[in-house]
Amino acid sequence: MKVLYFAWLRERVGTGEEEVSPPPEITSVSALMDWLAKRSAGHARAFENRDIVRAAVNQEFADPADAVSPGDEVAFFPPMTGGRP
Amino acid sequence: MKVLYFAWLRERVGTGEEEVSPPPEITSVSALMDWLAKRSAGHARAFENRDIVRAAVNQEFADPADAVSPGDEVAFFPPMTGGRP
Amino acid sequence: MIRVQADDFDVGAEIAALTAGNTHIGGVVTFTGLVRDFAGNTAVGTMTLEHYPGMTERMLGEIEAEARRRWPLDASLIVHRHGPLAPGDRIVLVITASAHRQAAFEAAEFLVDWLKTKAPFWKRESGPRGDRWVDARAADDDAAARWQAPRQE
Amino acid sequence: MIRVQADDFDVGAEIAALTAGNTHIGGVVTFTGLVRDFAGNTAVGTMTLEHYPGMTERMLGEIEAEARRRWPLDASLIVHRHGPLAPGDRIVLVITASAHRQAAFEAAEFLVDWLKTKAPFWKRESGPRGDRWVDARAADDDAAARWQAPRQE
Asked: What is the reported pLDDT for D152?
């Protein structure tokens, strides 16, 4: 499973992309966040406030309850802030 | 008094601009149209359907009842048709 | 700013000139009106836009001033062409710039609606069956009427 | 059409390329987003726009397709820049072209509102007190919510 991080999540985790192999019981975005948060102090800080973390699975926005599978591309990022006039 | 004509009013009258000296009793746009319509067959045709003639006095839109005076610039034209997508 | 001219205009250059040096502007909206093929005609014809020099400038200036009273604009521009034009040619340009995108959008739409009812232009189309002066459309009056302040009874 | 690029764009050239040869188009609306001075700061800083390559293109394409389902557009374009940008720089361009001016205006406004909530971009501002990631604003969600279809009870 490929996991991507953007903006301050990327900075806290310390990388923009990593290949991970979570155990089979990790089947939702929410469970994946719990599991990832234990990988390092940086991961823990990235996921410390779940309310402001957004996710995408295979480049589509995903809710915490949505499913993840081993071959997926899963991305985590803050709420988007494009041009804002 | 300077009188201007635009679009098909100009074509019917045969000129885009003329200097006229109406008698003192011509004090409104409406009266001026009546008076101008008698100047030539072309003028008569230009003013034959008053409903689709618009006027401006000194470059401001004017109603038939609005006043005209000897020094004014009075214009007559059809409803406007600028770019219209 | 307003301009009435026979020459074409460059939208990108006009935006750049209008917004140069003002870093409070967050959004710029433009409307460019193009000459369309005449409805129902397969043949492509040209048209000529006649106007009332002097009054045109006055009316465009009044319309622009009204938009700037109603919306917080940092900059605005109306350019209207006259003379002979062919399908695909640019006729009119409206630009509005504001810190807030919604003000820029609303003001641009207001200006375009009012231009069509207040600016003294008359269009003559040349087609395969000869020339004709184009009739005004009620739809333009309706679009402009949206912006009227509610009347007191 | 959609494009995501670090390079600047030329609004006039983009309009010309998009409308060339289509004489059914009567009106072209553009929105150009510019980098503003940061609120409350007198110092002018730069900013960097990070995005999610791949997903950005997918989301812009979906937003554009939705606009074209809702309005009768002859052409449309979204260009979004990423990378380092300074106040006054162009960030985003939306162009809509239609036979009818109101369709062009509404579709452009829809696209701009949705871009801000659906396009995966994150802005980091550099100011005299260092760098910071910009927070999302509730106002953008509100603007996008205007376009939601009414929900069934």
From this structure: 39
**Mutual angle of helices D101-118 and D138-145, in 10-degree steps:** 140
Q: Is the Cβ–Cβ distance between B17 and B5 less than 8 Å?
A: yes
Q: Is the pLDDT of residue C139 over 60?
A: no
Chain B interface residues (partner C, CB cutoff 8 A): 4, 6-8, 56, 59-60, 75, 77-85
Give the mean pLDDT of A10-14.
96
Nearest Cα residue to D102 out of C78, C109, C73, C13: C109
Closest CA to C134 of C45, C6, C47: C47
Chain B residues with CB under 8 Å of D99 CB are 85
The tally of domains found in chain A comes to: 1
Q: What is the CATH number of the domain that holds A35?
A: 3.10.20.30
Query: Does residue B85 lie in a domain region?
Result: no
Residue D119 has pLDDT above 50, yes or no: yes
Please check whether residue D103 is in contact with residue D112, taking contact to mean a CB–CB distance below 8 angstroms.
no
Mean local confidence (pLDDT), D91-114: 96
**Can you give the residue range of the structural domain that contains B73?**
2-77
Q: Of A31, A39, A11, which is closest to residue A74 (Cα–Cα)?
A: A31
Mean pLDDT of all residues in chain B? 94
CATH fold, domain D2-138, is Aldehyde Oxidoreductase; domain 3 (3.90.1170)
Which residues of B are less than 8 Å from D27 in CB distance? 85
- In chain D, which residues touch A (CB < 8 A)? 33-36, 49-52, 54-55, 58-59, 80, 91-92, 115-124, 133-137, 140
Cα atoms in the Cβ-side hemisphere of radius 13 Å centred on A19: 1
HSE, CB side, 13 Å, CA atoms: give it for residue B31: 12
Size of interface C-D (CB pairs under 8 A): 103
pLDDT one-digit tens code per residue, B1-14: 999 999 999 999 99
Name the pTM for this structure.
0.88
Structural domain contains residue B34: yes
